[in-house]
């Protein structure tokens, strides 16, 4: 075989080698890109889902009697469901108490310095908090 | 001979390329199995209840493909608050796609400070999120 023929073969092999390496680097880069896009999309979907369940909730404590009854009004446009009540950072009540818009519910929860309710959407609402000295 | 050296180098480069391709294909084939264990924090809220005591609500979502059991969340930040679990809405063992909502009392914490909420599982995977203590 002549010298020029051998040189031709080695050039072709080198070209194929370069092609394979370029292909491999491209696959690795594409793989990393696709993975990052998937993570970003799933995070965005989760956030969108979280925002979607948020509804405007406006709860007001009308009166809290010493015998532990609390009058809670729903001043918002949507029905609100209270699922937990915390008095002085202790769980005082759990269950399901639905309050239609512009209506008031009376709940027996005990008495204290702080009253926080949690609604069905998972939101906490501070209805009353007296500063302790 | 120079041409033989070039061929050897070229073969070495091809081998390296093939290893890269095999690695990528293998990673893509095994990645779904590795991602079967994944949890995330759907929402988190920290509200002052009384004094330096705060209520913390953490919603944990199973984003993987196998059930996991959630452990009590921990809080890191100013004052190193410790938390006690008050209520669990749902089951601590969460199936894929399901969520559990945990309510905790944490103290001492400071209004306006930012805290890191970390949730562990029995399978070793963790989720974390930042939360600001609000009034």
Key words describing this protein structure:
heterodimer, A: 133 residues, alpha+beta, Immunoglobulin-like, 4-stranded antiparallel beta sheet, 3-stranded antiparallel beta sheet, 38% helix, B: 135 residues, 2 domains, 1 helix, 9 strands, 24% helix, elongated
**Compute the gyration radius of chain A: what is it?**
32 Å
How can the largest sheet of chain B be summarized?
4 strands, antiparallel
Integer count of domains of chain B: 2
CATH domain class name of the largest domain in chain A: Mainly Beta
Order of strands across the biggest sheet of chain B?
1-2-7-5
Protein architecture, described:
Chain A has one helix and seven strands, in the order H-E-E-E-E-E-E-E. Chain A is an alpha+beta fold. Chain A has two domains: 1-52; 59-129, Sandwich (Immunoglobulin-like), CATH 2.60.40. In chain A, strand 3 and strand 4 form a beta hairpin. Chain A is rod-shaped, with a radius of gyration of 32 Å. With 135 residues, chain B is of the alpha+beta class. Chain B folds into two domains: 1-34; 39-132, Immunoglobulins (Immunoglobulin-like, Sandwich). Chain B has one helix at residues 2-34; strands spanning 39-50, 53-62, 68-69, 74-76, 82-89, 93-94, 99-107, 114-120, 126-132. A four-stranded antiparallel β-sheet of chain B has the order 1-2-7-5, with no helix packed on it. A three-stranded antiparallel β-sheet of chain B has the order 4-8-9, with no helix packed on it. Chain B has a two-stranded antiparallel sheet with strand order 3-6. In chain B, strand 1 and strand 2 form a beta hairpin. The mean pLDDT of chain B is 89. Chains A and B meet through helix 1, strand 3, strand 4, strand 6 and strand 7 of A and helix 1, strand 1, strand 2, strand 5 and strand 7 of B.
């Amino acid at each position: 075989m002549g010298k020029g023929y051998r040189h031709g073969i080695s050039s072709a092999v080198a070209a194929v080698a370069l092609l394979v390496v370029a292909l491999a680097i491209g696959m690795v880069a594409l793989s990393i890109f696709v993975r990052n896009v998937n993570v970003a999309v799933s995070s965005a979907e989760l956030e969108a889902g979280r925002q979607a369940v948020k509804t405007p909730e406006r709860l007001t404590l009308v009166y809290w009697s010493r015998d532990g009854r609390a009058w809670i009004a729903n001043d918002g446009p949507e029905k609100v469901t209270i699922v937990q009540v915390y008095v002085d950072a202790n769980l005082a009540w759990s269950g399901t108490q639905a309050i239609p818009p512009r209506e008031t519910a009376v709940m027996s929860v005990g008495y204290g310095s702080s009253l926080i309710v949690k609604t069905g959407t998972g939101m906490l609402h501070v209805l009353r908090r007296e500063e302790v000295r | 001979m120079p041409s033989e050296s070039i061929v050897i180098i070229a073969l070495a480069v091809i081998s390296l390329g093939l290893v890269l391709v095999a690695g990528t294909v293998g990673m893509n084939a095994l990645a779904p199995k590795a991602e079967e264990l994944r949890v995330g924090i759907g929402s988190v809220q920290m509200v002052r209840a009384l004094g330096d005591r705060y209520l913390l609500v953490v919603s944990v979502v199973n984003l993987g493909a196998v059930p996991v059991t959630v452990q009590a969340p921990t809080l890191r930040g100013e004052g190193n608050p410790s938390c006690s679990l008050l209520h669990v809405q749902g089951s601590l063992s969460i199936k894929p796609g399901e969520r559990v909502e945990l309510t905790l009392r944490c103290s001492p914490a400071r209004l306006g400070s930012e805290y890191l909420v970390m949730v562990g599982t029995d399978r070793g995977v963790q989720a974390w999120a930042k939360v600001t203590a609000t009034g």
